[in-house]
Amino acid sequence: MTTEVQFHNRIVESLQAHPNLTKQPRQVLGAAYSRVEPTPVAAPKLVAYSKEVGDILGFSQAYLDSEEFVQTFSGNNLLDGMDPYAMVYGGHQFGNWAGQLGDGRAINLGELVNPSGEHWTLQLKGSGMTPFSRTADGLAVLRSSIREFLCSEAMFHLGVPTTRALSLVTTGEKVVRDMFYNGNPQPENGAIVCRVAPSFVRFGNFQIFAARQDSENLKKLVDHTITADFPHLGDPSKETYIKWFHEISRRTAEMIIHWMRVGFVHGVMNTDNMSILGLTIDYGPYGWLEDYNPNWTPNTTDAQHKRYRFGNQPHIGMWNLVQLANALVPLIEDVEPLQAGIDLYGEVFGTNYSAMMAQKLGLQTYVAETDEPLLQELQRVLMLTETDYIIFFRKLADLAVSEGADERSDDEWLAPVLDAYYLPEQLELGIKADVASWLKAYAARIQADGRSDAERKSAMNQVNPKYVLRNYMAQVAIDAADEGDNSVVSELLELLRQPYDEQPNMEKWAAKRPDWARSRPGCSMLSCSS
Ligand code: AMP
Ligand code: MG
Q1: With 60 as the cut, is the pLDDT of residue 1 above it?
Q2: Which of 33, 105, 124, 175 for mutating ligand 1's site (highest number of atoms within 8 Å of CB)?
Q3: Which residue's alpha carbon is at the smallest distance from atom 20 of ligand 1?
Q4: 105 CA from centroid of ligand 1 (Å)
Q5: Taking a C-beta distance cutoff of 8 angstroms, is the pair 394, 360 a contact?
Q6: What does the pLDDT average to over 303-323?
Q7: In principle, which of 179, 195, 436, 513 could form an S-S bond with 413, CB 3.0–4.6 Å?
Q8: Cα(83)–Cα(37) distance, integer angstroms
Q9: Crossing angle between the packed helical segments 487-495 and 471-482, to the nearest 10 degrees
Q10: What pLDDT shows up at residue 374?
Q11: Is 405 helix (H, G, I), strand (E, B) or coil?
């Protein structure tokens, strides 16, 4: 089985390569990338592929099911036209400049041109050392690869801008990891995900050139990015650079608003993990809000300061844009338009976040005077006792309001959303009264808005998912796959293709986090070693 695909490796063509072809970890100066081939693996086996991503790339069913596919996306076999490379980038990690980072465990195979003429970069994650591997091994384990594979596909189907995942294979080799950083390293199954995106360029790719005062490579990368990924902005010029920065601000705001809508916490919003296209990228110690708590982060490495907690993501988006703006100063030579781009982020965020929250409530329009206090009170009410963020909004759509004010008791008001409470026994009278009183205010607002219950429910169910990749769900898939059973990975992949549909025989995955998962590592707490 062979496949005919076209590659046009624009990054390789337009940007500076480093002449040193060894994998020796080092500072790669004066270049945007370094050519490096994936390290062959012993016994690759397919765990799963995404049919939709295969379709985008123009892969036939027969090819997806072939041995050549497994060999290629485990790094054992290069297709004609592939020209693998790892990119140089830097970044601010947890607020501090960290210098050169780079594709330490990612290798770009090339840019595939699909039958519609779109360019899609194929990138293996976990296929061995590159010059950017520093002291690490360039490898990935099955547990973190399942998390990345499932989550990126789930996010896509939720309507959140994201990189995609084509395939997940095990390598047949063991990788040693100290999962808890407690001096107890264990061998784990090695794995490789093939990620797919129009571009994997990050804020940090620009930052590293600015930090090294390498204006020539900085300009080349900016010009290339605009030409390849933002052609609608026109030919590169100072004016275009400004328009481009403004568009990145807008896209970053939109992406984070989606995260807030679906309860996603990225966990490591370092500037090297911020895509220049406004895509969610690098699924490491991410997590999903279960009980609503804006202070929650899944990342144990960030447990002390909680810099990347759910409720701080909007602020960090702006902080990261400031770092990108700083990197662009040498090109634009004027801070004012860059500042305007940062301000634009604030404006877009403010307006669109409110509109998004109004949609979650099923309102046709957001009216600041009435809805700002309604949302603030909702935030307070959601935190009175452990309340599931996803279930609350999904069930809120079932609240009947068009009958008008009636004689419902507090218990009757709460009945539709009762499922959302983790500890219903903690719903003492005071809390019930507060929730009921919010629900009454909400009902009054909906009546004023003039939508029927059925219309409102249908609109709400398109923005409030029923199924997300709850933290424990990935762990259930991982536990099975570690024993050689990939069926849960397949089941979740299939489930999460339709996160807004009811799927009655899948109800168990719409339930609250089970008690056993409350404090199990991997289910609500993860470290960067994932
Ligand atoms: P991350 O925290 O995954 O975003 O990674 C930060 C930096 O560490 C990036 O430069 C990665 O390429 C690098 N890195 C993470 N894990 C590994 C690994 N196992 N081997 C080599 N480099 C790695
Ligand atoms: Mg990263």
Answers
A1: no
A2: 105
A3: 138
A4: 6
A5: no
A6: 97
A7: 436
A8: 8
A9: 150
A10: 98
A11: coil
Which ligand lies nearest the alpha carbon of 98?
A: 1
CA nearest ligand 1 atom 22, residue? 104
Does 403 score more than 80 pLDDT? Answer: no
Catalytic residue among 272, 291, 388, 449: 272
pLDDT at 468 over 60: yes
pLDDT-based confidence at residue 2 (cuts at 50, 70, 90):
low
**Closest Cα to atom 13 of ligand 1:** 104
Cα-to-centroid distance, 154 and ligand 1 (Å): 23
| Confidence check: pLDDT of 530 > 70 | no
Is 482 a known active-site residue? Answer: no
Q: What is the mean pLDDT of the chain?
A: 96
Does position 287 have pLDDT exceeding 90, yes or no? yes
Test site for ligand 1: of 101, 148, 163, 171, most ligand atoms within 8 A of the Cβ = 101
Please give all residues whose beta carbon lies within 6 A of any atom in ligand 1, as ranges.
101-105, 132-133, 136-139, 268, 272-273, 282, 284, 528
180 CB-near residues (< 8 Å, 6+ apart) = 521, 527
Could you count the other beta carbons within 10 Å of the beta carbon of residue 351? 13
How long, in residues, is the chain?
Answer: 530
Bridge pairing between strands 164-177 and 45-49: antiparallel
pLDDT surpassing 90 at residue 429 = no
